[in-house]
Write a structure and sequence with these properties.
Layout: H1 2-24, H2 26-55, H3 60-78, H4 86-104, H5 110-124, H6 137-172, H7 177-191, H8 194-208, H9 225-263, H10 266-273, H11 278-289, H12 291-315, H13 321-331, H14 334-362
Length: about 375
Amino acid sequence: MEESNFLARAAATVRAPFRLFKKKAPLLSFVAGRLVTMVVLLFLLGLALFGLMELAPGDIVDQMMTQQLLSGTQGETSGGFQGSGSTEQGTFTEMQMERLRKEFGLDKPFYIQYFKWLERVIFHGDLGTSLISRAPVSFLLSSRIWNSVLLNLISLVFITLISFALGVFFASKSGTRTDTAATFFALFFHAFPGILLLILLQLFASVTGLFPVTAYPDFPFSQAPLQFTFSYAHHVFLPLLASFLGGIGGTMRMIRATMLDQMGMPYILAIRARGISERRVYLHHAFRNTLNPYITGSANLLASLFSGSLVLEIIFAYPGLGRLMYEAVLQEDINLVLANSMFISALVLAGMVISDILLAIVDPRIRYGKE
């Protein structure tokens, strides 16, 4: 009994500073808690990725040595190789495979590999080396990060602006033929398979010749910045159109439904009774309350854009993180897979934290930390 009371008092003593901090700075303590949660989730995600790659049949050394043996067999056949040295060749191959596994650290259990990777990242800022290209992972990511971020941010901005404009407009036309047609097309594109839409758009580009079949110019930005900007817009138009059509349906319908819900509230009736114009009722009063569900779902929208860009980048040969991730998974390049996944996951989790902060800013009813 005394021991349990002692433990309870000790736990209360430990929690006291945190409760005081939560009381004095509720929003800051909430953000700190979300950041801690984000770190824990990233840690568990990395451990799970290492475990899944361990469960996959074979490893990167098997692939490398298989390719070497195949090329060696072809050379031996063309050069009239005799079978007397095959045992020595097989023994040398096994020794080389073991040496490579030890060099890459693949001879250790996956959790030891993971903790060693964490140690390099935290204390040395080293993401490791690609096991295939032998180039630093940080270099490979830095050459692709901004391409993917730019593509998805452009998609997010266009989806946000046009969804709000169309959602508010069609909410004002509720029940009309225009609203019915807009709802039909929104549901159609929302349910349409994204990969099929991308293939159809690429076929359209190939047949008509109006747009390139690839999504990135064939010259660098530093060579001609202004020309690159126009060329980039021309190349990326169809992929952005596919991303826009796939994302606008659900977002526009959510904003439309929220607007209709707000227009039926008693405070809207009171505002109209005061003689305030319908334009101000929609844009100044009801519109602000549509921000809450969108901000809440914006992190999920960003996550869906990044996951969808994997297929987009493969089909349109766009040099982004999605295509790099696909190649790394096929080759079982664990260092590249882990760093790529961690970056995208950190970006999505950071978006969720930012959305929570924005909710507290736009909605004065939200007060974090009150019990």
